[in-house]
Every structure is written in C-alpha cells, then in structure tokens.
Design brief:
Structural class: alpha+beta
Helix content: 25-40%
Number of strands: 26
Distance between the termini: 58 Å
Shape: elongated
Strand content: 15-25%
Number of helices: 15
Low-confidence stretches: 1-5
Length: about 625
C-alpha cells in the first residue's frame, strides 16, 4: 500500500459526533489543524475515564537482564531496542528499521514483537512519572517512523502475514499499548502525528474486522478492535466495530472455555493470555460505562480459579504444553479488580479463604491434581489426561509432573522459543515428557488432528477418586505413534497418591497383539545419588520400578536431543536433567513405578503375579496394597 492508498482522514470521521460537525467545512492544512485540535479536546474529555484503568506493564521481553524501567527508557531514547530479549542498536530512534531481524537464525518473533510497541508504552509510563519531554520526542520519532515505513497491507492479505501488520500485533497494539501511548503523549505529539495516528486507528479497525484469525489470536484482535471502537467513537465505523467486538468476545467465551474453566489450548500461558485479554476488555468497558455482555464475568471468574486449582506448592503455575512458570499471585492480582472472590484473595494476599479442596479434578479439560495440602512444603503432582487441545500442544498425554514442596522433581520439557531448532522440536515431542515410547516412537496426535467446536462440551477420558486417605486418577492413550501413525499398543495409566506417606504409585498397563520394546521415561530435576537396576535415588525422591526391565539414564545429549528441559521461552534457555529410561520387551505388561517423597528408599516387588496387588519395601517394612481396594474411594 502506497502513501496515497492510505486511509484519507477526511473520509473516516463521523461528522455527526459532538465537536466534529465543523471539521467537514475545513480544507487542506486547516482541516488537519482543526482535526488535531478536535482530537486533543476529545482526549481531554475522556482522559479521566481512561486513566481509571490501572497501568499494565507491557508483556514479552523488551528489557535487558537487570535493567529497570528508567534505564530501559533511556536506552530506548538512544535507539537501542530489545525484542524477545535480544538488543539491536539502530543508532537513533529516527533510524529504526522495523523490518530488520538481528537474530542469528532469523527468529521471526524478533521482528513481529518489535511492532507491538512495548518500548513506546514504557516511554509513556516514564513520561507520566517524570514529565521528561525527551520521552515524548523519542516516542514521536518511533511512532512516526513506524507509520511511515509500515503501511497497512491490502485487505486481501491474511491476518497471519506481513512483518508488522499480523493481526495479533494489531490487536496487541490497539488493546494494550497504543491507547496508553496516545492518552499519555497527545498534548506533546505534533498535529501531523495525531492525524497519522487517527488514520492508522481506522486502518487497524478495518484489518481486525476483515482479516481476524481464531483461537487466542481472536481474543487479542477483538480486544484491540473493542478498544478502538469504544475509545475513539468519532471514527466513522466505530459503532459497527463495537457491535462486532462485543458479539465476538461473548461468543468466544462460550466457545473457548471448558465448563471447568480451562481455555481450550490447555496451556497455562495461553489460558492466561485469553483471560488477560478479557480483563482488558472488561475494564475498558467499565471505564467507558458500557455494560459487559452476557455472562463474561462469571466465565472469567471460573477461568481465574483454574490457576489456583493447578497451582504448584511453590505458588507457581506448571508449564504444561507451551506453558508458563508465572506465580499465581502475580497472575491473579489484577483479577481482584473484577471479582470479590475470597479464594482468589487468598491466592493473591494470603488472606481470604483457602480452597475447600486439596486434590481436584478438572473433568472436561482432563487434568487431575494431587496434593497433600496447600502449604509450601506439601507434595504435589499433576496428571495430564487432557485431550490434544486447540493449539500450542505437546505430545504428552498421561504425563505426570511431581513436586515436593517448592522443588519440581519429576519435570518435563516445558516451553522453548518458537523457532525451528532441535530444542524446540524436542520440547514438543513425547521424548521430553514422562510418557511411554513404543519401539522408540512417541505419540503423534498432531499430524492429522482437527479441533471441532463441539469438543468443548465433552468430558475428558478421566476416571478418579478423592478421599482423606488417598486419591487416584486413570486415563488411556490409544492414539497413534510415530510418523506413520501406527497403533502398536494401548496404554493405560493409573496414579495413586497416598497422602500421609507422600507416596505416588504409577501403574502402567500396556496391551498389544505383538511384542514391542517399551520405554518408560521419567525426567528428574534433582541431585542424583545412585542408579540401580530397578531403582533411582535422588536428593529429593526415591524412584523404583517393578522388576521386569532395565533402567538407564541419559543426561544432556544433543544428538539427538534428550535429557534437556526448557527453563524459559527465549533462545538458549534450557538445562540438562536426568532422563530415566526403563526399557522392557513384551506384548502385554504391567509396570509399577513408586515415587517416594518422604526421604525413605523404596523398592517394588511383583505382587506375586497378581495383577491387582502391589508390594513395596520401605525402610519401615513391607506394604501390601490392592488397586481394587484403593479404588473403593468414590469414583467419578
């Protein structure tokens, strides 16, 4: 799109809007001066409403390690910008190349996230704190440069394309960053920039209506569209955009959240991306006196409570799928502005009401959480019986993570940078999770997977029981393995948690018509003390297997990648851990894995050939257990 193809400011104004009536008669330079004056007057009148919405620090990594906001703002003024944690010195704010990519492997997120303008929002916040006009001058140079060199694409360009106008960036700019930038700097910005901003707002609105995507992108897009429509109602199509955004956000809440509250991508990060965009939307509506549609508030309250249900003992979120370690108190603190909920208050402040449960099932999204209590020293485990989900999925059905107090002991691959590296592919694969490999093959649900909207109303394949003495959960993987999507075996996993003993028993049953080599994987992030034939002793846990296979360990292998987990979402953020590999050859088998968190060694006997019995030896003697008896707990 060329300069002359851009939105003509004269054509995008609703001249019936109060105060805009006289603009239509103005001509040429007079029109632009008059519009800038009108725009400032409108912002003056709505400024108090806007700033009733608390400041939200931009997301993503746009600061250097250890850098505070003031230091980052001064760096930005010098023309050094940071995206996905990687800096680029452009020499000055006037010479930024918004299409550049300084990463060693062309990591596309660098360019995309640069155009979210997190850095300009930071300048705005520092300006509001200090009144330093240097920040206003830098912001003007950056926005002017971006608008000049990054024209909106033609209307037939899909929302997922371009370096600077993907619709996810459009939604984030409009729904999180530009409104704050505009309301902070409008008195300092030139007439020319204010006119360019208004034309760009209109172009953003049209692109978001016509080229929006789906999933969590759609929530960011519609939040952005809603902000344009509500905050800048003098734009000609604002009423149409507002109706579109309100309707879409209401429909998507019903479409994207399971009845138990989890967003359908089934990842802690994007669950909260979704909820946060609803929060921004709802707070904006409240500030501008527009009622929230339908039952958005009740759906979001349940979604907020999901974070508490799956919270680890250290107070953080488990990084399931493309997840996040974010502290739950940090995630939920803004929710106190929306909900008078004593359990949410407890999770944020420690005051309020502790959840009325310990272990808990999410029967639609398919997660079961075992916990001995809500203290920082309590045991915790999360069993993943979830469906494949709508996006950002890992091949990890029936995986288990385990914590003892604040220490994650049994861990898994986590979320690595969204590049095409071997490490990224590893963290997505079964090989980075605590699952079963068959003839070396991992799960492969992704290849031909399709999400259907009606899936949101289906319960997961999860059976469970909860009691004061013990809890159990069970599910099955009967999906494809390997690139050829073969079905060599059916795998059923049951997990039993003896709360008082801090003991987890994992019973894996494998059924096949022919013999295969099976490998049970367990990723352990703890100091290793010893490895035996069927036992592994660590500083924080003792692990034992029923004796029918051979135990080995891989740690920190790069060819192929094995024994690594991601420690964050930026490139290079990973570390080595032990990958226990318990191999055996059979057609059908039952393997019992005992994970003791009490500090006592443990070993597993074969139960005298009885497929129901489990015999354990501990430092305190022999324990005989029956699966059937343990499952007499009321099942669901």
């Amino acid at each position: 799109m060329t300069e002359k193809d851009r939105a003509d400011l004269r054509d995008i104004i609703d001249y019936s809007f109060p105060g805009a009536e006289d603009l239509q008669a103005a001509d040429g330079a007079e029109f632009h001066r008059s519009f800038a004056s009108f725009f400032r007057s409108y912002l003056d009148s709505s400024r108090e409403r806007f700033f009733s919405i608390p400041y939200e620090k931009p997301e993503n990594v746009f600061e250097l390690p250890g850098e505070n906001d003031a230091e980052a703002a001064r760096r930005i003024c010098r023309g050094t910008l940071v995206s996905v944690g990687i800096p680029c010195d452009f020499g000055s704010v006037e010479t930024v190349d918004w299409h550049s990519n300084p990463t060693y492997n062309g990591y596309k997120e660098w360019t995309w996230q640069l155009s979210r303008h997190n850095d300009v929002k930071l300048l705005a916040h520092e300006y509001n704190l200090t009144g330093d006009e240097a920040y206003a001058r830098a912001a003007e140079a950056l926005l002017s440069s971006w608008i000049r060199t990054c024209p909106a694409p033609p209307m037939d360009v899909p929302g997922s394309e371009t370096d600077t106008w993907r619709t996810i960036e459009c939604g984030i700019r409009m729904g999180a960053n530009w409104p704050y930038i505009i309301y902070s700097f409008y008195r300092s910005f030139s007439d020319e920039l204010l006119c360019s901003i208004a034309a760009s707002l209109y172009e953003h609105g049209e692109r978001l209506v016509r080229n929006h995507m789906h999933g969590n992108w759609l929530l960011m897009e519609m939040n952005g569209l809603g902000h344009i429509a509500v905050m800048f109602p003098f734009l000609r199509k604002s009423s149409e955009w507002k109706a579109f955004a309100l309707s879409a956000m209401e429909k998507e809440a019903e479409k994207q959240f399971y009845p138990d509250g989890f967003q359908y991508e089934l990842t802690t990060c994007y669950h909260d991306v979704a909820v946060n965009n609803y929060q921004r939307f709802l707070e904006m509506l409240k500030a501008f006196a527009i009622p929230a549609p339908g039952n958005l508030l009740s759906i979001m309250e349940k979604a907020a409570e999901v974070n508490i249900a799956i919270m680890e003992s250290d107070g953080g979120l488990p990084d399931i799928n493309d997840g996040s370690f974010t502290p739950v108190s940090e995630v939920l603190k803004p929710k106190l502005r929306l909900f008078n909920n004593p359990v949410i208050s407890w999770a944020v402040t420690g005051e309020g009401k502790e959840p009325p449960y310990k272990s808990v099932a999410l029967p639609w999204s398919g997660f079961f959480v075992f916990r001995s209590g809500w203290g920082k020293d309590d045991a915790y485990a999360l069993f993943d019986a979830a469906p494949f989900g709508r996006g950002h999925q890992h091949e990890d059905k029936l995986s288990l993570i385990v914590s003892n107090g604040p220490h994650r002991i049994i861990t898994e691959g986590g979320c690595y940078a969204y590049d095409d590296s071997p490490m990224r592919r590893h963290t997505l694969s079964s090989g980075a999770h605590n699952v079963l490999l068959v003839d070396g093959m991992g799960q492969n649900r992704r290849k031909n997977y399709e999400w259907h909207d009606e899936d949101i109303g289906k319960k997961a394949d999860l059976e469970y029981g909860i009691s004061e003495r013990l809890d159990w959960a069970e599910s099955t993987y009967d999906g494809p393995y390997g690139e050829d999507e073969s079905h060599p075996a059916l795998w059923k996993r049951a997990v039993y948690f003896l709360r008082r003993e801090k003991l987890l028993l994992v019973v894996d049953r494998i059924i096949s018509a022919s013999e295969h080599e099976y490998t049970l994987l367990w990723h352990v992030d703890s100091a290793r003390r010893s490895i035996g034939v069927c036992t592994a002793l660590y500083e924080d846990a003792a692990i034992a297997f029923s004796p029918c296979g051979m135990l080995s360990v891989t740690r920190g292998s790069m060819h192929p990648v094995a024994g690594y987990i991601a420690t964050g979402k930026e490139q290079g953020m990973y570390k080595a851990v032990d990958r226990l590999e318990y191999r055996f050859t059979a057609a059908e088998a039952r393997i019992v894995t005992a994970i003791s968190l009490s500090g006592e060694p443990v070993s597993v006997e074969d139960g005298n050939g009885d497929d129901d019995r489990i015999r354990l030896k501990t430092g305190h003697g022999t324990i005989d257990l029956s699966e059937n008896e343990m499952r007499t707990v009321s099942g669901k």
